[in-house]
Amino acid sequence: MLEVNQISLFYGASQALKDVSLVAEKGRVTCILGRNGVGKTSLLNAIAGHQAIAAGEILWEGKPINRLAPYDRARAGIAYVPQGREIFSQLTVLENLKTGFNCLPRAERFIDNEIYFLFPVLKEMLHRRGGDLSGGQQQQLAIARALVTNPRMLLLDEPTEGIQPSIIKDIQRVIETLRKRGDMAVVLVEQYFEFARDLADSYAVMDRGSVILSGEGAEMDEQQVRGMMSV
User: Fold this and answer.
1) Res 188 pLDDT > 80
2) How many other β-carbons are positioned within 10 Å of the β-carbon of residue 137?
3) Taking the model in full, what pTM does it have?
């Protein structure tokens, strides 16, 4: 569904991505691993359209999207859950979920019951303000808000950051459920190695803006990947 071909990205004179290639397919979880500051978030920003690339090409379902604005990419089925969640703290849980309607036709502006099946805690808190939720609950809300858009690809930037272990397990179950549906590609940026290892159908390790190792999750050399993440 997604093909990233030899893309480069700059922030001023500083190069954040250098000739990065990646493939993500529906029904599979693609994990992007690496230390802080190696370009993982920049890659997601490039895919979502929040940062313009300087070279290369991004194909979504066979069509180039390099010049599409972020909202057009969202309408095309790409949903992004950024690092830090970025929910609206003064809006209720229900209002936060409804912000996902913006990229949908009017006929599709409803919250599917599957959202509450995946995140039952949110149904109990629909009228609480987002800022009153715990960090883990806010992360669940951010993922649910992305799923409201009925995406065909979900980009997740470090969903386990600052989250208690019980909710990490809940998020893992949600990702596994989405994978089993078979109609969505998931691209996961993560530093929590065990979480990524258990979910990865394929993986890519980044360093200094480049992919230095990639392969199938089942064939991952754990010691090698851990070493690359800890250097």
Assistant:
1) yes
2) 21
3) 0.94
DSSP E strands in 129-226: the ranges are: 153-157, 185-189, 202-207, 210-216
> Is pLDDT of 230 > 90?
no
The range of the structural domain enclosing residue 42 comes to 2-230
Mean pLDDT value across the chain: 95
Token digits of residue 217 = 């999750």
d(CA 226, CA 162): 20
Q: What CATH number should be reported for the domain holding residue 205?
A: 3.40.50.300
Give 64-72's long-range contacts (Cβ < 8 A, gap of 24+). Answer: 71/102, 71/103
Q: How many domains does the chain have?
A: 1
> What's the CA gap between 129 and 24, in Å, rounded?
35
Tokens of 10: 């700059």
Residues 6+ apart with CB under 8 A from 118: 144, 147, 174, 177
Strand 14-24, strand 2-11: pairing? antiparallel
Q: φ, ψ for residue 220 (rounded to 5)?
A: -65, 130
Stretch (H or E) spanning 99: none
Using 50, 70 and 90 to split pLDDT, how confident is the model at 203?
A: very high
